[in-house]
Specification:
This protein is α/β, with parallel strands linked by helices. The chain contains nine helices and 14 strands. Strands 2-1-4-5-6-7 form a six-stranded antiparallel beta sheet, with helices on one face. The chain has a five-stranded parallel beta sheet with strand order 8-12-13-3-14, with helices on both faces. A three-stranded antiparallel beta sheet has the order 9-10-11. The longest helix is centred in the middle third of the chain and has 32 residues.
């Protein structure tokens, strides 16, 4: 069994108190304070709403959710950018990210960090953005990456199984490619693949079961949401080994090619759901992910939802904001116009309006 059960208590929430940007994306200078609840960031296209969320993601994960190159983070014509955040965890945390066209440097409490993972040991974030890896309507590999990362986050003790499996897979592929597939070499890698892969599949299935129990509590989505995991490997280890002994490249058996689908009311959301239903399903998945990460870390992650009101009518915007108002941590949202959702936000929500004109370069283009 793996530790993915309920914690049964109220957890402290991570809170981004203040954010300062200098020459980051389209922002020349920006300083903003945030409330511990819902924070709506609104503005016209090109005003830097997603860039603000990207800066927060950079502080927590050390990378952009846009998978951008380092030089893409610089404002046009600038030589260096800086992102500074004041966080409230159990105490105050100061995070600084600076970069030029070649590299990014990260400091926590004024001390330079050598590993990005050091940030993630201190901070916790769950983010959904159309510019990131789409969970519902994107490539199946994106859903597999998301699930594998979540498994390693909530059950870190089985992370070696994941790495052992992929190491064995790569070594086996190398032997087959070099036409050295016979003998004990290939057989040894096959055994390692089955052992590590089976353990990983067991833990992953347990995490999916926990996700589905959490999704069952999301009544606001209107119809039951269920994650379906379609495994390609046979249930018996001996049969799996026989398949590996006879399989040619490319290898289509194992957790590296399993399919993960999200169903709403028994139908796959990716192919049968409307755009609005896909957005709602993605938010529900992120809420389940946040609950699992909170149980493992002992702290409520910050929730970031970029352009989450897209394709939602007023009734669905009310459902969404009511659910987010009940979220036990801080929430950052973006929308092109506060009139779209200001009337459905809770009274204690904070609204930040960005000015697109302030993000223009001298030639009139977005900075």
């Amino acid at each position: 069994m793996i530790p993915v059960g309920g914690s049964g208590g109220v957890l402290p929430a991570l809170w981004l108190r203040r954010l300062r940007l200098r020459d980051f994306r389209c922002h020349r200078r920006l300083e903003q304070e945030f409330s511990p609840g819902i924070n709506l960031i609104c503005g016209a296209n090109g005003s830097g709403k997603s860039s603000l969320l990207e800066a927060v993601h950079l502080m927590v994960c050390g990378v952009s959710f846009r998978r951008s190159r380092v030089r893409d983070l610089l404002r046009w014509g600038a030589q260096r950018y800086q992102v500074r955040g004041h966080w409230q965890r159990f105490g105050v945390l100061h995070v600084t990210v600076e970069g030029d066209r070649l590299r990014t440097m990260i400091a926590l409490q004024g001390r330079a960090l050598a590993r990005r993972s050091d940030l993630q040991e201190q901070l916790a974030l769950v983010a959904d953005s159309p510019q990131g890896d789409p969970l519902v309507d994107g490539d199946p590999r994106a859903r597999r990456r998301w699930l594998d990362r979540l498994v390693m986050a909530v059950a870190p003790q089985v992370a070696p199984c994941y790495h052992h499996y992929y190491r064995a897979l790569l070594q086996r592929s190398r032997l087959v490619r070099q036409q050295q597939g016979g003998g004990a070499g290939l057989a040894a890698w096959n055994v390692q693949m089955v052992r590590a892969g089976r353990r990983w599949m067991e833990v992953r299935a347990a995490v999916v079961a926990r996700i589905n129990r959490l999704l069952a509590d999301e009544a606001w989505v209107g119809a039951p949401l269920v994650v379906r995991l379609r495994e390609s490997a046979p249930p018996e280890d001996g049969t799996w080994l026989e398949l590996l002994e006879t399989a040619a490249r490319p290898l289509r058996v194992g957790p590296h090619c399993d399919a993960i689908a999200l169903q709403r009311g028994g139908r796959e959301v990716r192919t049968c759901g409307s755009h609005g239903q896909q957005r709602v399903a993605a938010v529900a998945l992120r809420l389940a992910e946040s609950a699992l990460r909170a149980e493992q870390r002992g702290i409520q992650p910050l929730m970031m939802l970029d352009d989450c009101f897209t394709a939602l009518d007023r009734s669905w915007r009310i459902r969404l904001t009511d659910r987010l108002a009940a979220y036990p941590g801080q929430v950052l949202l973006t929308a092109p116009d506060d009139a779209l959702c200001a009337d459905v936000l809770p009274k204690d929500a904070s609204i930040l309006r960005l000015d697109a004109e302030a993000c223009r370069t001298k030639d009139g283009t977005d900075g």
